[in-house]
Amino acid sequence: MKLTPDPKQALLTELNKCRACRFCVDVCPTYQVSGGLEALSSFGRIQIIRHLLTGMLELDDSLSYALYSCLQCRRCENTCKAKGQALEICEIIQQARAYLAPDYAKEVTNGV
Length: 112
Ligand code: SF4
Ligand code: SF4
Fold this sequence. Notes:
This protein is an all-alpha fold. It has a single domain, classed as Fumarate Reductase Iron-sulfur Protein, Chain B, domain 2 (Orthogonal Bundle), CATH 1.10.1060. Helices cover 54% and strands 0% of the residues. α3 (42-53) crosses α6 (89-100). The chain is globular. The model has no long low-confidence stretch (mean pLDDT 93). The chain binds iron/sulfur cluster (2 copies).
């Protein structure tokens, strides 16, 4: 994903490559341990980021948790690439953390 002066547009451009095939969902370990919560899957995180960027959702603790609970393991990226789409899912999530919820990790750390 190209870094640009407009992180929102860069994120939306990358997100728009997603075909919503959902091949990446079942391989996501946080989805697996959650018992099937889509918000804690790779595709779920992509949808959350899209809706936060377009104003359809407002950031709250549960959405921040969805962003920060990603393990950055790249299993979703490898699957997406194998299926021919190759979204930079980990980079999307990292950039979304920095752009949409930069203070969340600090708040959680201070709270313990
Ligand atoms: S595998 Fe790739 S294209 Fe398919 S839903 Fe996941 S991120 Fe989107
Ligand atoms: S990088 Fe994050 S979203 Fe992708 S499979 Fe790993 S935990 Fe799931």
